[in-house]
Amino acid sequence: MNRFIRIAVLAVLLISAFASIGYCTANNWGNTDTNPLLARQLPNDLIYVGAARGGVSTMVSGSLAIPVGYAVAVKAITEVATPLTLADGVVGQIITVQISTMSGGASAILTPTTKTGFTTITFDAAREYATLLFLDATTGWVCISTNATTA
Fold first, then answer.
1. Sheet-wide strand order for 108-112
2. Are residues 25 and 53 in the same domain?
3. Which of 2, 80, 140, 151 has its Cβ near the most Cβ atoms within 10 Å?
4. How many other CB atoms are found less than 10 A from the CB of residue 70?
5. What are 37-85's pLDDT values in tens digits?
């Protein structure tokens, strides 16, 4: 029993010490979180698996390649059958492709370089999205979630 009390007191002292020097006082869980206790940025940071900084990319007009360095890519579509491409990612990477706005009659067709279980994903309305997981260079992207899209 005496040993348990000493361990509990030591734990409280350690937690207090970390809090007093700033290790546990601030944590916004966004891409600016540099809390030394966590040692990386959360939640959309892909640096630790070898990709560029994560976050959300609102794609510019004319760009048809989905950037793999982001966790979420948002694209506005203005033309019928707009061809979107997705290069291979890194093992374990998850990306969500979302259509923000779509002009009347427009659509988009996403074709990843390497994929399993589908050939293309078709978006035909605003706010549709697909979430993909990159397994490896052989299997490629697999679709883990969609919202009203056709895969």
1. 65-66, 82-86, 108-112, 121-123
2. no
3. 140
4. 22
5. 444 444 444 444 444 445 556 665 567 888 888 888 888 888 888 899 9
DSSP state, 115?
B
Q: What is the CA radius of gyration of the chain?
A: 21
Determine the Cα–Cα distance for residues 120 and 140; give it in Å rounded to an integer: 13
Over residues 115-143, the pLDDT tens digits come to 999 999 999 888 899 999 999 999 999 99
Range(s) of the domain holding residue 13 = 1-43
> Domain check: are 9 and 29 in the same one?
yes
C-alpha pair distances (Å), 101 with each of 27, 85, 112, 129? 33, 18, 21, 12
Do 33 and 58 reside in the same domain of the chain? no
Give the global pTM: 0.62
> Are 78 and 135 in the same domain?
yes
- CATH code where residue 69 lies: 2.60.120
Q: Are residues 53 and 3 in the same domain?
A: no
pLDDT band at residue 35 under the 50/70/90 scheme: very low
Query: What is the number of domains present in the chain?
Result: 2
